[in-house]
Amino acid sequence: MSVQTYRSVQVAEPGAPLTVVDLPLRDPGAGQVRVKVQGSACRRGDFVHCAQGWVTGAAYPGGYAEMIIAPQTALARIPDGLSAADAAPMACAGVTMFNSIRRTAAGPGDVVAILGLCGLGHLGVQFAANFAALQGIRAMVEPLPLEKAAEGYDRMMANQARFRVVLTTD
User: Fold this and answer.
1) What is the pLDDT of residue 30?
2) Cα–Cα distance between 59 and 64 in angstroms, integer?
């Protein structure tokens, strides 16, 4: 019997390039689910602010892959009208900005300041402008196939990505 596999992007050692590899498919454990990934947003920044420490790629494998096993508490339903590529950056960046604005005293019609219009900032502007309605908000994305993860990462790190890079498994 052959072992089922899935494609995943990995860095074999510090300083090594991103490569696409085949990994054996494994079953989830208690409190976990296996998720078929359709889009994953590339990011850079400081991971230490996650209160639970459940950062994909740091606390458990995944993110830039066709499949991941994740804690069931880390899942959120994606509305039918939102594509995977549009939803990917909304998970981390979107929640960060949404909660930042939601927890202020600002209300509809108030003026808010958003510093920087990159990955998080452009979502903050949309959330602030549409806070009462909270619809029609879309992250500006640049979809790339999983095989181009290294190219997308290099472009993002060199500030050459036009919008948020999203890896797709299509």
Assistant:
1) 93
2) 14
What's the token pair of residue 72?
A: 């069931």
Question: How many CA atoms are closer than 13 Å to the CA of 120, on its beta-carbon side?
Answer: 16
Give every CB contact of residue 69 below 8 A, 6+ residues apart in sequence.
26, 28, 29, 32, 33, 34, 35, 60, 61, 62
pTM > 0.70: yes or no: no
Q: What is the DSSP letter of 91?
A: I
Total residue count of the chain as it appears in this document:
170
Give the angle 122-123-127 at the CA atoms, nearest 5°: 120
Contact, 128 vs 100, CB < 8 A?
A: no
Among residues 90, 88, 98, the alpha carbon closest in space to that of 63 is found at 88
More confident residue, 53 or 128: 128
Side-chain half-sphere exposure of 49, counting CA atoms within 13 A: 5
- Beginning with the edge strand found earlier in the chain, give each strand of the sheet holding 39-41 in spatial order: 39-41, 164-168, 141-145
